[in-house]
Amino acid sequence: MSLPNCPKCNSPYTYQDGELFVCPECAHEWSVEEVEVPIEVEVLVVKDVNGHQLTDGDTVSVIKDLKVKGSSSTLKMGTKVKNIRLVDGDHNIDCKIDGFGAMKLKSEFVKKI
Q: Can you give the chain as a three-state secondary structure string?
């Protein structure tokens, strides 16, 4: 957690002393309750091969045959994947595929239906 700037002089060099924040430049002291912490919401934006934005619960279709790691089977082009869940990372779609089970896919290999 980063400490807030001083509300009086906007100094970034504040420090916490017990229940109080203290500014070494102007000697202003204020309590933790007085600090309004801005809530940062990070929105995950995932797009399919055509540039359409995907959301949790969408149905997508696989656009090319994909080898399944750890298996001799292949996920065929046109396979429908229902109720996807978006996750952060390289493989940004988490889903369950009938006949294959739980799997992670890259959004660049699917299109929104």
A: CCCCCCCCCCCCCCEEECCEEECCCCCCEEEHHHCCCCCCCCCCCEECCCCCEECCCCCEEECCCEECCCCCCEECCCCEECCCEECCCCCCEEEEECCCEEEEECHHHEEEC
CATH annotation of 59-112: 2.30.30.40
Residue 55 to residue 86: CA distance in whole angstroms? 7
| Whether 77 contacts 64, CB under 8 Å | yes
Pick the CATH number of 1-37 from 2.20.25.10, 2.40.50.140, 3.90.226.10, 3.40.30.10: 2.20.25.10
pTM listed for this prediction: 0.61
- Predicted confidence at residue 2, as pLDDT, reads 79
> Which residues are paired to 81 by β-bridges?
60
pLDDT, averaged across the chain: 89
pLDDT in tens, 54-67: 999 999 999 999 99
